[in-house]
Amino acid sequence: MPDAMHIQRRRTLSGLLRATALARLGGPLAALAQTRTLPPTPACGAPASATVEQTEGPYFKRNSPLRLSLLEEGLAGERLLLGGRVLDTRCQPVAKVLLDFWQADAAGAYDNRGFRMRGHQFSDATGAFRLDTVLPGLYPGRTRHIHVKLQPPGGPVLTTQLYFPGEPGNRGDGIFSTDLLVSMGRDASGAVATFNFVLG
Ligand code: FE
Questions:
Q1: Distance, CA 59 to ligand 1 centroid (Å)?
Q2: How many angstroms does the Cα of residue 23 sit away from the middle of ligand 1?
Q3: Nearest Cα to 87, choosing from 49, 116, 119?
Q4: Is 33 helix (H, G, I), strand (E, B) or coil?
Q5: How far does the centroid of ligand 1 lie from the alpha carbon of residue 50, in Å?
Q6: Which has fewest Cβ within 10 Å: 53, 94, 143, 167?
Q7: For 87-107, how does the pLDDT look when each residue is reduced to its tens digit (9 = 90+)?
Q8: Domain 4-199: which topology?
Q9: Residues 172, 163: contact at Cβ < 8 Å?
Q10: Ion ligand 1, residues whose Cβ is below 5 A away
Q11: Are 36 and 187 in contact (CB under 8 A)?
Q12: For the chain, which residues make up each domain, given as ranges?
């Protein structure tokens, strides 16, 4: 039976590992992440309903790298900053939620051999997340979308997809949901998409 001290040690160790992993995100990536600013999160009104689940599709891969930016040398496409918060149904932030993103590149292709356009991160103490990427390209049969899996500590996995307003392909896509539309804005570097996930 694990005693309290054992549990405390394990917690400390996992905290250290997380701190080490985040430290590795420093340098150019951290600098890049700080060059762009997301709009403030709107205030919470009535209790929010949980974010709807969607199919993961055929291209999910386990063990994506821990990173806040999918940008890399030579990557084509329009820069996109995707951010927001993870909240519970009472609009309280949920920290340390694993968010695992994967998407097509600007040409509509998934990398199924390596991990281009794939990465995971954890929501911070305010539930916030932010991903530097490019607008996903189109591929046959689907409208523009980004895939994501979310998992709070010790909780169930929520698999879903995010969509973009004003896309001609939204109408004809049988999986598309208006509940999963991001809010779009722009800054000097490109498009800024905001979405708040709600965990039930
Ligand atoms: Fe897809």
A1: 7
A2: 31
A3: 49
A4: helix
A5: 22
A6: 53
A7: 999 999 999 999 999 999 999
A8: Protocatechuate 3,4-Dioxygenase, subunit A (2.60.130)
A9: no
A10: 57
A11: yes
A12: 4-199
Q: How many angstroms is it from 134 CA to the middle of ligand 1?
A: 14
The Å distance, Cα 168 to ligand 1 centre, comes to 17
Name 138's Cβ contacts closer than 8 Å, sequence gap at least 6.
104, 108, 144, 169
Single-letter code of the amino acid located at 71: L
95 Cα–ligand 1 center, Å: 27
| Separation of CA 115 and ligand 1 centre (Å) | 15
Closest to 197 (Cα-Cα) out of 44, 56, 85, 40: 85
Per the CB < 8 A criterion, the answer to whether 81 and 113 are in contact is no
The bridge status of strand 79-88 relative to strand 197-199 is parallel
35-76 pLDDT, tens digit per residue, is 688 877 666 666 779 999 999 999 999 999 999 999 999 999
